[in-house]
Amino acid sequence: xxxxxxxxxxxxxxxxxxxxxxxxxxxxxxxxxxxxxxxxxxxxxxxxxxxxxxxxxxxxxxxxxxxxxxxxxxxxxxxxxxxxxxxxxxxxxxxxxxxxxxxxxxxxxxxxxxxxxxxxxxxxxxxxxxxxxxxxxxxxxxxxxxxxxxxxxxxxxxxxxxxxxxxxxxxxxxxxxxxxxxxxxxxxxxxxxxxxxxxxxxxxxxxxxxxxxxxxxxxxxxxxxxxxxxxxxxxxxxxxxxxxxxxxxxxxxxxxxxxxxxxxxxxxxxxxxxxxxxxxxxxxxxxxxxxxxxxxxxxxxxxxxxxxxxxxxxxxxxxxxxxxxxxxxxxxxxxxxxxxxxxxxxxxxxxxxxxxxxxxxxxxxxxxxxxxxxxxxxxxxxxxxxxxxxxxxxxxxxxxxxxxxxxxxxxxxxxxxxxxxxxxxxxxxxxxxxxxxxxxxxxxxxxxxxxxxxxxxxxxxxxxxxxxxxxxxxxxxxxxxxxxxxxxxxxxxxxxxxxxxxxxxxxxxxxxxxxxxxxxxxxxxxxxxxxxxxxxxxxxxxxxxxxxxxxxxxxxxxxxxxxxxxxxxxxxxxxxxxxxxxxxxxxxxxxxxxxxxxxxxxxxxxxxxxxxxxxxxxxxxxxxxxxxxxxxxxxxxxxxxxxxxxxxxxxxxxxxxxxxxxxxxx
Length: 666
Known about the structure:
Layout: E1 4-7, H1 11-23, E2 27-33, H2 40-44, E3 47-52, H3 63-73, E4 77-79, H4 89-97, E5 101-102, H5 107-114, H6 116-125, E6 133-134, H7 141-151, E7 155-159, E8 168-171, H8 174-192, E9 197-201, E10 207-215, E11 221-233, E12 236-242, H9 249-265, E13 270-278, E14 284-290, H10 297-304, H11 308-316, E15 333-340, E16 342-343, E17 349-350, E18 353-354, E19 357-359, E20 365-366, E21 369-375, E22 382-383, E23 390-398, H12 401-413, E24 416-418, H13 424-432, H14 434-438, H15 445-449, H16 461-483, E25 499-504, E26 507-516, E27 519-524, E28 529-534, E29 542-547, E30 550-559, E31 562-567, E32 570-577, H17 579-585, E33 599-601, E34 606-611, E35 618-619, E36 624-630, E37 633-638, E38 643-648, E39 655-656, E40 661-665
Parallel strand pairs: 1-2, 1-4, 2-3, 4-5
Antiparallel strand pairs: 6-9, 7-8, 7-9, 10-11, 10-13, 11-12, 12-15, 13-14, 15-23, 16-17, 18-22, 19-24, 20-21, 21-23, 25-26, 25-32, 26-27, 27-28, 28-29, 29-30, 30-31, 31-32, 33-40, 34-36, 34-39, 35-38, 36-37, 38-40
């Protein structure tokens, strides 16, 4: 077995590989850029080597710099993780030339399957059903428009060397093809150093289901079930699960056998994933093969008990697989939620900054449920603009899908993140969405269910009443503490009342509370009663409360006259007032937000790539005004209505903060 492995990656996946290597008794080497000098993966590894400036194209994807780190440390093998150099055949060739093992497939398999154009041609030749499309190189926007017309709209514009949703656009008409073609080329060039683009038919109402394969150099190849990855936003996966709630055993077997046949046709070894589009009749079409470890691999590990990173290392060491297809049993159900540094209330635009609070839920492995959190950050760490915005992958396992979802709901509620925008509220909302709970989902789920973006969650009256009851009980604890403060004036003793008014989410409830040593009974004006028990004390930012047998996990913040409560995707201002305070509060005027309708504000920290208009230009609704790049993604900002540009405050190359004014309109 290898004595030392270098991880040619960063963040969460580097930490993930280090954990397994440590378990196997293998020493690890981390590499890091300027931005990652204090990163978690650097701290976890046995050794660390600095490889250059913050941008990935000057550090993590520069083959010569990674090879120099290998020479310095004497690493015998390299695990590439995902992204960066993981599917770069030139990197694999350089390792082979240096006599260093690549923890991944052979160069030939990377070249044949890692390139989306080539892989589709091979799949077609092997008799695998593929989505209609144009697999040749496309010279310019005009040719892209011509090809798109021949295929038939809508079409998918994709980077040949792409992955993770980068360099990918859906176009429904000619103008969108021209615009998307150029943006895809730009993103592909900056992310992968390869700007080749291909176009295929976009299948409406599809499911995205992928098969995990594992192969060795001795001719053995097995599949470890499937992963349902249909919950996607901007073609990037957000929530994954295993198995799929849609497949039957016959379809699973057919997809798995086809995936293995394809892998063996190209001499594949190591872990790999064959992705399919599956329609409503369970007909499946080959999409692509990822010749690397997938981001969502933990859900497969949770239902099979197979450590995929360990298997990859053993295969790279020349060992045969220790398990056969008959040994693979799917046990229970697993969910994965990707926690991203992005603001769901601003159309999921990237958010950067310092993690002032980062407290994941405890990783548990108790009978009936498991919680796992794969992460690469820590409290006080910085979320950089230079890399992918994923903070963590929160996973749960339970005997069945319903229990796995419930475990995920509670784990998301218990996840504390402050200092940046993040998508925890959105993930919680999806877990409670009836369509997701039913399993009746497609890749269009987010676009269809949140067409205007995510505006938060409106909780039911029953949920609001339970939160109100919990807040009244918490308020009573806080009031008792305040009443016991020493040094009060004589004849100014503070008494804690029994009658209160609670307002939240536009609702107002009059309640009475009666407390005892075991908890409190909260009675509403209509005589509905809740029994509340919990161990919350003032200052705690997380409260676990039992409200009449229902477990509530609440994130708690203090505001004047009450609490800021976050639960199940809702962000609530909860005011708990005495009857007289409530009476006076109703007389207070409401403060209105400032009018920004004539301003184009920068929605996230980023770099201005281009400004498409000038002062005096008349713009139409939907017209592209400028392009902002953040976290390797280009975002086109468009006019919300007709108007005339009166002032332009930014130019290409400028770095802007959130809400900086880019331009003004008459």
